[in-house]
Write a structure and sequence with these properties.
Distance between the termini: 163 Å
Number of strands: 18
Helix content: 10-25%
Structural class: alpha+beta
Order of helices and strands: HHEEEEEEHHHEEEEEEHHHHHEHEEEEEH
Strand content: 25-35%
Number of helices: 12
Largest sheet: 6 strands, antiparallel
Mean pLDDT: 77
Low-confidence stretches: 32-36, 59-64, 192-197, 349-376
Length: 501
């Protein structure tokens, strides 16, 4: 079979006129100075950007890479203040991070609480060009050292220090800290300028910044049993270390009958001596107060504070307060004072309180040997005929409390009698500005007398005295329905005198 492949043929004349392009490009490349590998012109220097890798060996013999390390420098810069007349500039502290792997720089300002200045990252991580370089040279590791000034985008930073790793790294490269010698000389020359008997002045701003939101808490009691309606009241003292102010709040137990407003003393500086005059604190000729105020030295467990004429006994404190006194004053003994020792007045009045609350008294005495006979046992037998005849009948009497206390003499009560089962309820109407919360005084029940019998309808009439759980009530009136009912049933109310008589 014949070979049909076509052979490409070029004439000798065409081959002779084909130019040599490779030699032409090589000559053109050598003639251009700006192309890579070009020959610079006479008087022209070769542009070369230096990096930190030329200064330190980035790869040791074992093959461990070191450019991943980061150097940290401490610096500050001055920022002009145009919106205030009081200050011309402010000094802001920053951290300069230099990354050895690619010569990038990151500038960050540590956030300060309540500074009012947007803080954080000032310059993001990238290569920062030098302002005095026309070749596009960026900052390298030798450009950063203590006592040097670097300019990043028209902002000059003064480097004042570095961390331990950065100092060791620079010393390994042969770069010494210029502040080290100067700092040691200055420290050796420093002498104490304050005398030993002179109290150093502490700036209030410094105290506020160091102790902001640090509060000491003390638990104390105020024995107010000597006053009318007084009792032992539990208080919580908050001492603010930032400005030496004191706030007092009352620990009100639930169902105590007191208002829920726990604020007893508004936050303020508390003087040790109370001035009854209207001028308050005494002032010296310079206009400064001469009063002494309570400080953290005066607040100790067991001490008595006279707060505007009221004695407060500190019984205990929280764990933060104990730790503060342990670190500041070296105290180790924090034995609390028993609050039960100041509740003697309440213990002495227990019988009186139980008499005021007869149901609680009866339940409390059920387990004792001298227990009051329970009203749930040996109740009178039910008269079903009487219950059916007087079902729904309620007789109401107005009564007063027979007592030697002047406050109890003005109290008014409504005693309801149910003839169907001889049960009794006592209700106290609310009186404005009386200081006593009215309401239900005694639940509906059958009440036993001192002789063991129960109260019946025969014991109720206008002018009668009935005793319910050590409370003597005088029946001073009745409603119209009760009077008519007693007139219509003289056999049930033999001691009742008709209105006509």
């Amino acid at each position: 079979m014949a070979d049909r492949r076509v052979l490409k043929y070029e004439s000798p004349a065409r081959q002779e006129i084909k130019p040599d392009i490779s030699e032409t490009l090589l000559e053109l490349k050598r003639s251009l100075p700006f192309l890579p590998g070009g020959i610079p012109l006479t008087g022209q220097e070769e542009v070369k950007v230096h990096t930190s890798l030329e200064i330190y060996p980035h790869m040791d013999g074992v093959g461990i890479s070191v450019p991943a390390w980061v150097l940290r420098f401490y610096a500050y810069f001055q920022e002009a203040v145009h919106e205030k007349r009081e200050e011309q500039y402010r000094v802001r502290k920053v951290n300069i991070y230099f990354y050895l792997e690619d010569d990038t720089i990151h500038v960050s300002e540590p956030k300060t609480q309540n500074s009012g200045i947007p803080q954080g990252t000032l310059i993001r991580r990238h290569r920062i060009p030098r302002a005095d370089s026309v070749k596009g040279q960026h900052y390298i590791v030798t450009d950063l050292n203590v006592e040097k000034e670097v300019t990043f985008y028209s902002r000059t930073f003064k480097i004042i220090g570095c961390d331990g790793f950065t100092r060791d790294f620079l010393e390994a490269l042969g770069i010494d800290d210029p502040y080290e010698t100067h700092r040691s000389e200055m420290l050796s020359r420093i002498k104490k300028t304050l005398q030993s008997n002179t109290k150093p002045h502490i700036s209030p701003l410094k105290t506020f910044l160091e102790n902001d939101r640090r509060v000491l808490r003390f638990y104390c009691v105020w024995d107010d049993t000597n006053s009318v309606f007084g009792d032992v009241r539990h208080m919580v003292i908050h001492y603010y270390l930032s400005d030496d102010t004191i706030e007092i709040r009352e620990a009100i137990p639930p169902n105590s009958g007191r208002e829920h407003n726990t604020l007893f003393l508004r936050r303020s500086r508390l003087p040790k001596r109370f001035h009854s005059n209207s001028l308050g604190a005494h002032l010296n000729p310079n206009g400064e107060t001469t009063d002494e105020f309570y400080t953290d030295r005066d607040l100790m467990i067991g001490s008595v504070l006279h707060l505007y004429g009221r004695p407060f006994v500190i019984c205990d404190c929280d764990e933060f307060t104990k730790e503060y006194y342990r670190e500041t004053y070296g105290l180790e003994n924090f034995d609390p004072v028993r609050i039960e020792d100041y509740d003697v007045a309440e213990a002495n009045c227990a019988q009186e309180l139980m008499a005021f609350f007869p149901i609680a008294a009866e339940k409390a005495n059920e387990s004792s040997s001298l227990a009051i006979p329970s009203t749930t046992n040996n109740l009178p037998k039910k008269d079903f005929k009487k219950m059916a005849q007087f079902d729904g009948v309620t007789l109401r009497y107005s009564a007063t409390l027979k007592s030697q206390k002047r406050v109890d003499q003005d109290r008014k009560f409504v005693i309801s009698l149910y003839p169907a089962d001889d049960s009794i309820t006592v209700f106290e109407p609310h009186q404005r500005n009386s200081g006593i919360i009215g309401g239900k005084f005694l639940e509906k029940q059958n009440i036993r007398k001192d002789d063991g019998t129960y109260f019946t309808v025969q014991d109720f009439y206008i002018g009668a005295e009935v005793e319910f759980y050590h409370h003597v009530f005088i029946l001073c009136g009745a409603d119209d329905y009760a009077i008519k009912f007693m007139d219509q049933h003289p056999d049930m109310f033999p001691k009742h005198r008709a209105a006509a008589q």
